[in-house]
Design goal:
The structure is a homodimer.
Chain A: E1 8-14, H1 19-31, E2 32-41, H2 47-60, E3 66-70, H3 73-77, H4 107-122, E4 126-128, H5 143-156, E5 164-166, H6 174-183, H7 206-218
Parallel strand pairs in A: 1-2, 1-4, 2-3, 4-5
Amino acid sequence: MAPSYPPVDRAVALVSGGLDSCVAAAVACAAAARPAFLHISYGQRTQARERRAFEAIADHYGVDERLAVDIEYLRQIGASSLTDPSLDIPRGDDAPAGVPSTYVPFRNANLLAIAVAWAEALGARAVYIGIHREGATYPDCRPAFLEAFNRLVTEGTRPDSGIQVRAPLIEMDKAGIVRLGCELEAPLHLTWSCYSREDTPCGACHSCRLRRAGFASAGVPDPVTAATSTCSKGEKA
Amino acid sequence: MAPSYPPVDRAVALVSGGLDSCVAAAVACAAAARPAFLHISYGQRTQARERRAFEAIADHYGVDERLAVDIEYLRQIGASSLTDPSLDIPRGDDAPAGVPSTYVPFRNANLLAIAVAWAEALGARAVYIGIHREGATYPDCRPAFLEAFNRLVTEGTRPDSGIQVRAPLIEMDKAGIVRLGCELEAPLHLTWSCYSREDTPCGACHSCRLRRAGFASAGVPDPVTAATSTCSKGEKA
């Protein structure tokens, strides 16, 4: 069931091109009369593929208000296997306990700061982000982070901005996200999740494994790796 | 008198090249064994001049660990007379009440998010920013903003990051900042404050006027516009 946030006129959705952000964008499109899609590249390995997924999802929803920005600086800063080619992407169950090496320092605060700046410039009242429960090994994916960010938005924008950051998936696991995506007829076939490759998903990285387990647990074939999908029946494109 | 924050090994200082950030950097250099200087261009009109000021101040303090990043996206987002050439910079007392047109949406949250990401990558425990009392017409210069940001840092970085954002000037007016800069022998002669011009300060924009009033009230000649300055006596360069 889709989470209940009140409808708004304008909303900014952070759309990386992955499964989670696609479903969060579907929720945004259901809630906002005028959704605007924001894509942020930050030097991650698969950024060209993710950008194509972003454009395809925006085309699917007929969203003209889109902004793609490149924040090269997260690669300059480094300290993550997602942006530093000299570090290995953890595969399979090799990932050690604690914060994974794919953690990009303070990444979601950086992404949300951009999204809120754009929302304030557009007069949008909501910002959507696809963080979820299974990302909670990253410090910037937890409910306490979301709550702290919303307080910052209240303090740090114009008094009448009224912007709320919404994370409709924050209590969901991957299977729940797949189910919600199907319910909302989200274009899951257009998404890209793999951390390592841009041609076909590697199947071994943490993101590929989470995705596969999520589709399996939801009992739905993954339209990116399978020939057909029950989710594609309602495709609008 | 310099504010009392405990000493740290490494600290990141946001150094725009203006008067305030120069004095905040002087405080950082007094507190940190290994200061690192961060400069962020965001499409503001005088960015080339400010970058030169940043490099000169970093040279003055012998800081090798420096990072200059360009966040073009704040110009893409616009909605500020500082980044949109089609909007006039307010001059003199024409500025209306409320948030000035030079406000860049959520700017300081964006700048601090970058600084904290770099601090986390470096293992720095403190981030210095030169926000002050006379900037409090901007929502993102107030103590409540600083407090909310520090809570966000606690929630959004690795559990052991221990990063504190420090705003040593936050309770000061411009005269107090000038006096502290002189006390710390900060290289005020290397700073640039004008919002409009890159050759000689326009003298009319809000930033020029605040600066002039600050030096006058402190009873110190401005080394950028005057031939000599009492502050230059202790220059280390």
